[in-house]
């Protein structure tokens, strides 16, 4: 059983000194609120320019839910941003596999880039309304199963409620 080094901090994902930060984006890759807005604001226009190139080359129809794709980190401390699109919470449909896929695909991209340290936000738990305790279980479980070989995988939780949920899952 792999035993990756998973850590938790309460804080702002745009301030993390890691190789790559994961962005809770949307399919358009053109920005939004929450983590996405904060990353583009602080990282600068180079990130959006590379997102536009991704759309022009590989993802004309948008980045599908559960997939992940990298750009520069721009002015962030992180060298790369890995954009992934979480599923919108649906009470009458189990979309857990898609939320797990966001984490698995982000790890795959991080390995391709050569990132050793990666920071994740609580994907889908804001605008996309996924209950944070359930999202924490899926996120922690997927990193545990798939996160072998990294120096550090860090969850960055904005508020205490999310921090407590991830601490419980861990
Ligand atoms: N650092 C860490 N966590 C944060 C930060 C931050 N700076 N800001 C918010 N959070 P969300 P989603 C927390 O909405 O649910 C965007 O418009 C927040 O409290 O960023 O996947 C995109 O463009 C919450 O717990 O992502 C998409 O359209 C968590 O990060 C849509 O939102 C995720 O909230 C994606 O929605």
Walk me through the topology.
Elements (H helix, E strand, L loop, with lengths): L5 E5 L9 E6 L8 H10 L1 H13 L10 E5 L7 E6 L10 H18 L3 E4 L11 H15 L5 E6 L2 H10 L1
Parallel strand pairs: 1-6, 2-4, 2-5, 5-6
Antiparallel strand pairs: 3-4
The structure holds ligand AR6.
Roughly how many Å is the radius of gyration? 14 Å
Main sheet?
6 strands, mixed
Hey, roughly how much beta strand do the residues contain? 15-25%
**Helix share of residues?**
25-40%
Order of helices and strands: EEHHEEHEHEH
Overall description:
InterPro entries: Macro_dom, Macro_dom-like. It holds the Pfam family Macro. This is O-acetyl-ADP-ribose deacetylase. This protein is of the alpha/beta class and 170 residues long. It has one domain: Leucine Aminopeptidase, subunit E, domain 1 (3-Layer(aba) Sandwich). It contains five helices and six strands, in the order ββααββαβαβα. A six-stranded mixed β-sheet has the order 1-6-5-2-4-3, with helices on both faces. Strand 3 and strand 4 form a beta hairpin. Helix 3 packs across helix 4 and helix 4 crosses helix 5. It is globular and about 40 Å long. The mean pLDDT is 97. It binds ligand AR6.
What brief labels describe this structure?
single chain; 170 residues; alpha/beta; Leucine Aminopeptidase, subunit E, domain 1; six-stranded mixed beta sheet; 39% helix; 19% strand; globular; O-acetyl-ADP-ribose deacetylase; Macro_dom
